[in-house]
Amino acid sequence: MHILKQNSIILMLVLSMMVVKAQNSSKVKLITQENIFPESTFKSCHASTLVELSDHRIMASWFAGEHEGANDVAIWTSVLENGKWSQPKSIANGIQNDTVRFACWNPVLFKNKKGKLFLFYKVGPNPREWWGEMKVSNNDGKSWGKAIRLPNEILGPIKNKPIQLKSGKIIYPSSTESVKDNIWKIHIEISDSNASKWNKIAIDNGEFGLIQPSIVEYADGSLQMLCRSRQNVIVETWSTDEGLTWSKPAAISLPNPNSGIDSVMLKNGSQLLVYNPMISGKDWWLGRSELRLAISKDGKNWTDICTLEKHEKGEYSYPAIIQSGDGNIHISYTDNRKNIHYISVDITQL
After folding, report:
1. Is 187 a residue whose pLDDT tops 80?
2. pTM of the prediction?
């Protein structure tokens, strides 16, 4: 029954991809498209995140080193100012003592309503045994405090940015991968406005294997999470009580080749989603050679508005997306593990 159900999902996705054609809308205006640093800067890099600083500057962060999981992998940042990215700077590592060092993973940048800048990231030998750490900056990342290890069972945002509610609470989309049996589960973490008091909310994942959710808040206060899955489809779940309870996860009409996604709620009430519009192959990187931008007014009905990448092979994955104060859209993603690519677009005509 499970195989038949999964095959029916794949068939549904194939049919939907035949109907929905990715067309670059004339109303999507490209502002900037560039790599953040020179091609030979790192042997390997991945998992970028974006945040807007003061004076319309944009900060990007990612992990980089010998290869994903290597002990020398650290967290790096660069700032876009006056049209130019600054030289990458390492701001966090996994050094435990003089003889022990672990890899760093999946940085997430977030600025709260009081202007405090947070860097959340993971440290450990692998995604099944890592733990969460954070650093705080009170001057837009010019300097950072010491690394703070998050409480036991708290990982922080696992890939995508959190959101801060009107009440001040911060909602973090998170997930775990088990040491045994390779079980994937999403959950929510909630903190106060200073990320000092934490609570974990379990979510029933139903029949899906889910990780790396992205979260948005609608005008009526409802929350939606869109998740990476093993079932070749993006999966959603909803909350109407500030994240305390969540609906049963359900597949939406968009495919997911076991790869990261990200979304953002726009000021006009629409939602943008960056995703790979394919299904997974026999190897983990297959299905990541095309990357699209889609829009929705209700989180259920999606329209592709721009193809960011389309190739016969290669990896263009793990996107991050934000909207800056001037209304422009900023997107970053992994470019074949050799660079972090950055795109900004104007969608005010949509």
Report:
1. yes
2. 0.93
